[in-house]
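Weekly structure sync, notes
Attendees: PL (lead), two postdocs, one rotation student
Agenda item 3: pending single-chain targets
PL asked that the sequence for the first pending target be pasted directly into the notes so everyone works from the same version. It is reproduced below exactly as submitted, 135 residues in total.
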Amino acid sequence: MYTNHLVFTALAALFSISTADPTCAAGQAGPPQKSQAPGPPGGVYMCTGSNWSGQCQYVQSIPGQCHPLEPPFYRSTSSIGPNPTTHCWFWDNDKCTAGDAANPNPYINLVYPGNPDLLGQGWKDRAQSFICDIY
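Predicted structure, written out during the meeting:
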C-alpha cells in the first residue's frame, strides 16, 4: 500500500504543471535549503523579487513543452532556480520562439542553482515563458 502511495505521489508531481509554494511568503528565503532534498528533475522555483523574495512559486514542468508564465510571474520574475539536472530557457515572448534582428537574444539559459538576481543579466521582469529539459 505504501509503495502504491509513493508511485501515485511521484506521478502526480511529474504531471503537475504548477503548484504554489505556501512556505515562501514575502520576505522569506526562497529555494529549499541545501540541507533539504531537492525537487524532482524538471522543476523550477521562481520569485517576483530578487534574492528569492516577494511572491514565490514552484512549477513542475513537462520537459520540452513551452509553458507561458501566469500572473504574477509574467514579466515580473526576478529570481529563477531550476532543480538539479534541469536546464531551462526563459523567453521574452509567450511562445518560446526565437528572436529576430531587433531582438537577437530572446532567451536566457538557467541551470541549478539558478540566479537569485536577474537584473545583473538584464532579465529582471523580462521572462514571459519557459521550456525545461532534463539532462
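Discussion points:
- The longest strand covers residues 53-60.
- The chain has one domain: 2-134.
Action: rotation student to compare against the earlier draft before next sync.
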